[in-house]
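Sample pair:
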Amino acid sequence: MNMNETKPSEETNPEIEAHLNEIAKICCRSLAGESDAEMDRIENLLKSLLMSGYVGKKHRSFQVDLETRVKDQCRDCAMHRGGALSSMSEKLAKKFADLTRWESRTPSDASPAKPANISSATDA
């Protein structure tokens, strides 16, 4: 295991760990001023994290998990840019929560079911 990666929890799986660690690495690079362009990749990682079953696991909040990993991976940057880290993790937590709500919607949430064709809607 890389020294910059957080130890896996009993409550997650290797895929979740990889996604969380990659998001934390991108956050570290952003805090160091290296690259904001990678922030676009985060949305795909958040979707993958959701599909990997992260929401169903019993653990702390996404924001707490992310901040802990960022602090483990780039302690100096995270200490000196604590406000920026809090702001970034809050935005990502909101984005993750929005994705979670979107993915959990059922068709009945949006609109009632409609007949597939005219014969299934009538007795014809």
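The mean pLDDT is 80.
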